[in-house]
Design goal:
Keywords: Membrane, Transmembrane, Transmembrane helix. The protein has about 325 residues and is mainly α. It has one domain. It is about 70% helix and about 0% strand. It contains 12 helices and 2 strands; from the N terminus they run βαααααααααααβα. Strands 1-2 form a two-stranded antiparallel sheet. Helix 1 packs antiparallel against helix 11, helix 5 packs antiparallel against helix 7 and helix 7 runs antiparallel to helix 10. It is elongated, with a radius of gyration of 22 Å. The two termini are about 35 Å apart. The relative contact order is 0.16.
Length: about 325
């Protein structure tokens, strides 16, 4: 039994946007996020740079041995996180609470597919470059840039043509042949629901917020365009530079500058989104801001019940405020 999402049937407090019913300021979530990004940065940023130059200039080993050592170490923590995420999504007793709306037990979310393809693009030049004899420093230096291209491409095309691209299979909570929202929508939904423990309640609250807020749709589209366009542009530039410079310079650029791009882009995104959310709150009563757009997401009877619970929480909070 299923029913199609009908955002226009839900009435919320006209004075503020629907709540997302989620915060990172509890259950040590901020600490967990800090640890995650720190370890990922160490694994795929600091460690490859330190090892390469220490072995090259200190131990004076060949490029083949040098790159083989680096390849054997990179991917340990990220592999563990991917396996843990798959456990949460497919195998654990609470997997039904984390999976996409309307999806079956083994239906992967969009982020699983996106990060899986990007990790394949990352490890391909890493393994190929370290397997050659002699090892190819330029090939290995492309790893992060190849990851950027594959990971950012969905952001770009869905940002350029929002709700126009249709796939013959389910994409996270979006049924087959449904116009896809900009990919930041599914990125936020999937990461918070699965990795952040927001579960199906967040997926429902996120859908409702997106459907009811023109500002939120603007935020999702602009961030998708920014990360998609800048990521692919800079990745292409990093690859070109890495292949036209000396090994020492090209390797440093290939493993260092992508992180600089990510950190600067992340800081800009956080600042801009904060400003837009403030504008959304200040101008919520305006018809141009509180404008409904339905995603046409099919939900099961159980998921429809969760949707009603999320709606009731919003209304209850409104009555308490009043």
């Amino acid at each position: 039994m299923s029913s199609s999402s009908d955002a226009s049937s839900v009435t919320f407090n006209p004075d503020r946007p629907p709540s997302l019913n989620y915060t990172i300021k509890c259950n040590r979530r901020e600490f967990a996020i800090t640890v995650f990004f720190t370890l990922i940065f160490l694994e795929a940023g600091i460690l490859p740079l330190i090892l390469f130059y220490a072995i090259r200039w200190g131990a004076h080993l060949s490029n083949t041995k040098n790159l083989a050592i680096i390849t054997s170490l990179v991917g340990t923590y990220s592999g563990y996180k991917m396996a843990r995420r798959s456990w949460y999504l497919f195998i654990s007793d609470s997997s039904h609470q984390r999976r996409p709306l309307g999806a079956g037990r083994f239906g992967p979310d969009a982020f699983t597919l996106q990060i899986g393809l990007a990790m394949t693009a990352f490890f391909t030049p890493l393994v190929v470059g370290s397997s050659l004899n002699p090892g190819s420093v330029h090939t290995v230096a492309m790893s992060l840039s190849c990851f950027m291209i594959v990971f950012c491409f969905p952001f770009l095309i869905t940002g350029i043509w929002p709700h126009r691209i249709k796939m013959p299979f389910r994409v996270s909570s979006m049924p087959p042949w449904t116009g896809l929202p900009p990919a930041v929508y599914t990125l936020v939904e999937d990461i918070v629901a699965v990795d952040g423990g927001g579960c199906v309640e967040f997926r429902q609250a996120w859908r409702i917020r997106y459907e009811h807020s023109a500002v939120m749709r603007h935020i999702v589209r602009v961030t998708s365009l920014w990360w998609g366009a800048s990521g692919m542009l800079f990745a292409g530039a990093f690859i070109a530079i890495a292949w036209t410079t000396a090994d020492d310079i090209g390797y440093g650029i290939g493993w260092g500058l992508p992180w600089l791009w990510a950190m600067v882009s992340g800081a800009i995104t956080v600042w801009w989104v904060h400003e837009e959310l403030k504008r959304e709150s200040d101008e919520w009563s305006s018809p141009e801001v509180h404008r409904v757009y339905s995603l046409h997401i099919d939900t099961s009877a159980d998921e429809k019940l969760v949707e009603s619970q999320v709606t009731q929480k919003e209304r209850h909070h409104h009555h308490e405020v009043v």
